[in-house]
Amino acid sequence: MMYYVSGISLITDEMTRYHCFLQLKNDIIEGRIQCNLDDAVVLASYCMQAEFGNYNSERHTLEYLKDFALFPKDLVENGHNGLLERLTDAVIQQHSALVGLSQGTAEEYYILAAQQLDGYGQETFLVKDEHGLETILGVTLKGIIVSGTNSSKFYKWAEIANVLNHKKNFGIETSNADDHIVNFVFPDVESAKYVFRMCVHQHTFYMTYEATEEDNEGEAQNPRSSSGGNGRLFQNIDTALLSSREELDEV
After folding, report:
1. Is residue 243 one of the residues assigned to a domain?
2. What domain range includes position 91?
3. CA–CA dist 32, 68 (Å, integer)
4. Which residue in 95, 97, 127, 140 has a CA-CA distance of 20 to 30 Å to 206?
5. Which of 79-83, 113-117, 211-215, 228-232 has the lowest mean pLDDT?
């Protein structure tokens, strides 16, 4: 899995930055991260600078670029006639203005721009809540979001004491006495297990890196202090959930 971060301060080497750039490019092209036409043009221009270097009028033509995946598939497939050509022409103009920008810096600009888009760092799943109503559960780099028909709630990693998984059941245990445990049911066992493991890894990554960054920058209190200083979930899983914890240990 990919660990999403805010900003680029945690991306400290070229290979990590490059793989992050490629993953985000794929997320945008496949529609996992949404963007409008203007954003698509800006991102594609950074992509061209990162992959091709400086603009070359003889090489970077509409004909040359027609086979490169630069835009979200849904924009291209659902667009009217001529949209792809107009978008590509706009990207060529934007790319030509980036002459002199290093390819590594273009990757960084692409990453920073992608981080501002809806869906960045989030994966969503359809579940049923305790009343049997369909609900969207999303795991993000900052915590877990639950969106129902009439309301939504965001649980920050700092507020989550534990996450529980047994077969198709998934629960969020919080430090809030009024909302201590919230339970959901997934369509199948594998999906519930996948989200459980994702929460483990994303929470650990956040507590190890993101929370420390926030504390150092003075932007937020370090969540470690609210979780007993251990920075880890799953300190008190009962015996019915041992299978999930054992699988976690094998990761």
Report:
1. no
2. 8-116
3. 19
4. 127
5. 228-232
* 34 and 104 co-located in one domain: yes
pTM comes to 0.71
Q: Are residues 97 and 195 in the same domain?
A: no
Q: Which residues are registered as beta bridge partners of 140?
A: 122
pLDDT in tens, 186-206: 999 999 999 999 998 888 888
- Answer with the one of 116, 133, 154 that is the final residue of a domain: 116
In a domain, 129, yes or no: yes
The predicted-structure confidence for 4-58, as pLDDT tens digits, reads as follows 777 888 788 899 999 999 999 999 999 989 999 999 999 999 999 999 999 999 9
153 C-beta neighbours (distance < 10 Å), count = 12
Backbone angles phi, psi at 13, to 5 degrees: -135, 160
